[in-house]
Design a protein that fits this description.
four-stranded antiparallel sheet, 35% helix, 34% strand
Length: 139
């Protein structure tokens, strides 16, 4: 065959195989650098969510103290939620409140609600405290 019989190769628009491989390598390096930051963000979001749930549970426990949880309690009330939170409500330091005639009418009770849970970083916990006036709790 002669040169005249060979079809001429014309340049086609598009990317060569080398250009595509270089682009994929750059994309892989960029994604590799971003993945730890993305996973850290999800860990922080999970921790914030669990902490918010724990605070809401502790607030609920402080609200229930004196209603479903007796005050002042000789022993701490404890429990566990289906979501994996362990809780404990304890009372302390009953102080007498006198009425106008000087008779002991009620007591001020310190209430403590502890909520703990397990996370990827180990055991986490929060504590909320409050006070409640309890009629007839004076000693």
């Amino acid at each position: 065959m002669t040169d005249a019989a060979l079809p001429l190769r014309t340049a086609r628009p598009g990317f060569s195989l080398i250009e595509v491989l270089v682009a994929l390598a750059i994309l892989g390096i960029a994604l590799g650098a971003l993945m730890p930051r993305i996973s850290l963000g999800s860990l922080v979001a999970e921790r914030a969510s669990r902490t918010e749930e724990a605070v809401l549970l502790a607030e609920q426990l402080l609200t229930e103290a004196g209603r479903t949880i007796p005050l002042p309690a000789k022993e701490a009330a404890e429990g566990r939620t289906p979501a994996g939170f362990s809780w404990r409500v304890s009372t302390c330091c009953v102080r007498t409140v006198s009425n106008l005639s000087g008779q002991a009418a009620a007591g001020i009770v310190d209430i403590r609600a502890d909520v703990s849970w397990l996370s990827m970083r180990g055991s986490q916990s929060i504590t909320l405290t409050g006070r409640r006036i309890v009629p007839g709790a004076a000693k």
